[in-house]
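Propose amino acids for all 456 sites.
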């Protein structure tokens, strides 16, 4: 399906907002990226229709042969958005690739002077973390190209995100073993045999790459813009999920929560310069077998851990724009097998609890074929939550607890003497006692899957 077909699908599958969005951030959908081939007038009409639903359209920045034609398309979308008073937002994925482009200058070097790459991350030949700075200028220029053009066109950039992942130094898979064989890595990281030291060094370099080549070129021109990247967010030092290109390596530090191998994580967000957090709450296929809970609570438990980690770790003033996905994520080609997907109910509850734990809005990722399912499901909850806009905007989250024993899950936002609470009952917890703790007091939260406003 084309961007235009997706646009039409989404407009027909979603309804205009009943409760105004106010200053809340819009909703982002993976299939609404690009400039549909409509006349200026028809495109303006479509953007107005999307805006009535609280949904934003993003321009796509590209590199390589398509750079110039993509710029023309992006500028056209941005100009119309600006004329309509809508925020100008962009996808800056392609311009950030690839630091590790396979050039000989980017390799590790062993004691015999032989060059080598780390191929444990799939297609991209991962090189030496200490041979990457010479790539900064080329990558930064791919971003500057667009930033200069937006600036001279008078377009105020409001939002830029990237999905820059499998590139640059990463500490997982076989990266540590490769670095230990490299004379340059050993010289640069004297404590290389200590994983924590190795990890902190790599994440520091990674943050610098993103700051210098991506965040700074944009934020120096538009200091108020929201700039961020997939999976980069404030956290408590742990990560509870694995990306599709990462595999569990028992040789590396980890800590089990049932069968979930949590990993220690170093700071990357703090030095990146990013102005919003972008956690990832996906139904990763492998999650299902980690726990012994009921099928729904396996998904919910893991995704709420991720959501709560970001919510509790980010300052309240920092927007959290979370990537979310309901349908099974990255199942094997042979099919789902014994794995039972997450129910729509449990996913909707996860979205609610994330909002009540400080998340600002969502970014739906899904394959094109799932868009007709994912977009309306997500939009319905997000739009309904605007009923409580004053709590979402100004309330303080009061709980980040994720029960290890399946049962009632409660979240709340406190605004003055009122509490917006939501309770979800798993594992037959309906009717049982549950409460939110507030300054040493237990505020009872009755059963029922709806938000309640409780006078304190
Ligand atoms: Zn190296």
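Proposal:
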């Amino acid at each position: 399906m084309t961007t235009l077909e997706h646009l039409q699908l989404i407009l027909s599958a979603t309804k205009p907002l009943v409760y105004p969005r106010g200053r809340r951030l819009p909703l982002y959908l993976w299939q609404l990226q690009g400039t549909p081939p409509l006349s200026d007038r028809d495109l303006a009409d479509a953007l107005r229709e999307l805006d009535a639903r609280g949904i934003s359209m993003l321009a796509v920045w590209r590199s390589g042969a398509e750079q110039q034609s993509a710029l023309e398309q992006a500028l056209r979308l941005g100009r119309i958005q600006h004329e309509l008073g809508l925020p100008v937002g962009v996808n800056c994925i392609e311009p950030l690739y690839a630091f590790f482009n396979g050039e000989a200058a980017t390799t590790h070097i062993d004691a015999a002077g032989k060059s080598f790459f780390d191929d444990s991350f799939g297609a991209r030949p991962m090189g030496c973390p200490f041979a990457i700075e010479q790539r900064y200028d080329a990558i930064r220029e791919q971003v500057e190209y667009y930033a200069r053009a937006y600036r001279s066109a008078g377009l105020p950039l409001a939002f830029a995100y990237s999905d820059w992942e499998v590139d640059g130094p990463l500490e997982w898979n076989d990266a540590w073993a490769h670095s230990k064989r490299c004379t340059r890595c050993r010289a640069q990281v004297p404590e290389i045999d200590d994983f924590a030291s190795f990890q902190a060094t790599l994440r520091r370099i990674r943050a610098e790459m993103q700051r210098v080549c991506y965040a700074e070129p944009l934020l120096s021109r538009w200091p108020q813009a929201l700039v961020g990247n997939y999976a980069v967010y404030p956290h408590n030092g742990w990560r509870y999920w694995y990306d599709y290109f990462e595999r569990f390596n028992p040789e590396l530090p980890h800590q089990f929560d049932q069968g979930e191998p949590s990993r220690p994580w170093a700071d990357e967000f703090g030095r990146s310069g990013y102005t919003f957090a972008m956690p990832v709450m996906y139904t990763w296929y492998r999650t299902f077998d980690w726990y012994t809970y009921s099928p729904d609570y396996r998904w919910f438990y893991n995704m709420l851990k991720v959501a709560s980690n970001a919510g509790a770790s980010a300052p309240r003033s920092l927007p959290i724009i979370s990537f979310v996905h309901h349908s099974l994520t990255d199942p094997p080609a042979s099919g789902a097998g014994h794995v039972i997907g997450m129910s729509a109910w449990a996913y909707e509850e996860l979205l609610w609890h994330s909002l009540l734990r400080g998340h600002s809005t969502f970014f739906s990722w899904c394959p094109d074929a799932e868009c007709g399912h994912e977009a309306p499901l997500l939009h319905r909850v997000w739009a309904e939550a605007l009923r409580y806009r004053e709590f979402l905007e100004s309330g303080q989250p009061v709980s980040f607890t994720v029960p290890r024993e399946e049962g009632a899950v409660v979240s709340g936002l406190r605004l003055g003497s009122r509490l917006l609470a939501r309770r979800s009952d798993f594992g037959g917890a309906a009717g049982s006692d549950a409460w939110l703790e507030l300054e040493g007091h237990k505020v009872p939260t009755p059963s029922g899957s709806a938000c309640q406003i409780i006078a304190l």
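Residues 108, 128, 130, 179, 182, 184-185 surround zinc ion (CB under 6 Å). The two ends are 51 Å apart (CA to CA).
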